[in-house]
Design a protein that fits this description.
binds zinc ion, 27 strands, seven-stranded antiparallel β-sheet, RmlC-like_jellyroll, alpha+beta, Mannose-6-phosphate isomerase, Jelly Rolls, RmlC_Cupin_sf, single chain, about 400 residues
Length: about 400
């Protein structure tokens, strides 16, 4: 990869990159088959690596995905507009362009693009797990991971086996009850969600989950903006017929703490987990952000936290808009077709593994501020785009 190629791509794209679909296999859970990937292509790496269950967007981070994962798994690639076979890592683009791509503020504060988003596509529910808070992540040289969910209609023609998400623990539960379940981790099914509380997933809405809050995501396809990190502690050992070894509970604990039950319990932010008003504080119904009747509407779908934000932009048939944002962002077209800046843009229908698409973009800060011109070329269907950001001053508080 030469630096010239990065500059050429930014120039040709007039401040916007076209990204290559970035599919991720997982060995746990069952695939939901809602990623618009060709049904024959869900095992591109063979059965032992598991089916494709996620698609990652604008990612500069690797997946922690076992010893046989290829070196660049999880990292997004940019394709040159004039020759899509010429590609480079989005991560390299951030390194080469720095503030020119992501803006001075973000570059000075983080030195990189600090978030990404994914489509999370499981037919089965995921284990009840926590992402470490910063003071625990520091002990193993990692970062905390706050995350958010949004459930788009366009990718959810069926709900999977369990469209219900558990959060935290019921306010009546005490720490000794949790301790007892964790001590059973290697003995028997600890059924820890018996102590939790769950909400049925409502399409077109979302949630915010701070680090330190336990959660067991349900089986709808989820658009998930999150911080650049992958540090779990899995507190549920049997889920949807899968069994999880003790290491899933303690893999991000320091060596000398792996059998220290009080340390493991301290990973749980007790106050937030047992908040009796959990829904009031963390449910995220969409909030109107901008619009013009009959032309377009933009809604905040992730907001009310200091890390991550996302919007859903809908453009009515036949309309053209110039949309401005305060900062750089990644985005994915989930419905319709038309133009996005200089690019022909279209929601993918059936993607062959390895094939290029024109549904994913990254917009530089300068371009975001001056405005991206987007046209919907359909006569009847809206064009819908999900956009993910680092939280900034424009984002509603909650
Ligand atoms: Zn999680």
């Amino acid at each position: 990869m030469s630096n010239e190629l990065v500059y050429q791509a930014l120039e040709e794209g007039e401040g916007i990159f076209n990204l290559v679909p970035n599919f991720v296999p997982r060995r746990f859970g069952e695939a939901g088959f809602r990623l618009r990937l060709h049904p024959d292509d869900y095992y591109p790496f063979g059965l032992k690596r598991g089916a494709i269950k996620e698609r990652w967007f604008s990612s500069v981070v690797n997946v922690i995905n076992g010893d046989d994962a290829p070196e660049n798994e999880g990292l997004s690639y940019v394709a040159l507009h004039s020759d899509t076979n010429k590609r480079f890592l989005f991560k390299e683009a951030v390194e080469v362009l720095g503030a020119k791509l992501i803006g001075k503020e973000l570059f000075q504060e983080y030195g990189t693009w600090p978030m990404f988003a994914k489509f999370f596509d499981y037919k089965t529910p995921l284990f009840h797990h926590i992402h470490l808070m910063q003071h625990h992540a520091d002990l193993v040289g990692k970062m905390a991971k706050p995350e958010a969910y949004y459930f788009p209609y366009q990718l959810n023609n069926y709900p999977g086996e369990f469209p219900v998400t558990y959060f935290g623990f019921d306010a009546s539960v005490n720490l000794d009850e949790i301790k007892e379940r964790l001590l059973q981790f290697e003995e028997t099914d600890n059924r820890i969600t018996e102590l939790s509380r769950a909400f049925r997933i409502q399409l077109g809405t979302g949630w915010y989950v701070p680090a330190g809050v336990v959660h067991a995501p349900g089986s709808y396809l989820t658009y998930e903006p999150q911080w650049n990190s992958d540090v779990n502690a899995v507190v549920e050992n049997v889920v949807a017929a899968d069994h999880y070894p003790y290491d899933f509970l303690v893999e991000n604990c320091p060596e000398d703490k792996k059998h220290d039950i009080d340390f493991i319990l301290s990973l749980i932010d007790w106050e937030k987990n047992t908040d009796p008003e959990f829904r009031k504080h963390y449910f995220r119904p969409p909030l109107h952000s901008a619009g013009q009747n009959g032309v377009f509407e933009e809604k905040w779908i992730t907001y009310g936290n200091e890390y991550i934000a996302a919007k859903e932009l809908t453009i009515e048939p036949g309309k053209t808009v110039s949309v401005k944002d305060h900062s750089a962002y990644g985005c994915i077209v989930i419905q319709g077709h038309g133009k996005f800046g200089i690019y022909d843009a279209e929601a993918a229908q059936v993607i062959r593994f390895g094939q290029m698409t024109s549904d994913e973009f990254f917009v530089s800060e300068e371009k975001a501020k001056s405005g991206v011109v987007i046209s919907n070329h359909s006569k009847y269907e809206p064009m819908v785009i999900l956009k993910h950001f680092v939280s900034n001053q424009d984002v509603p508080k909650a």
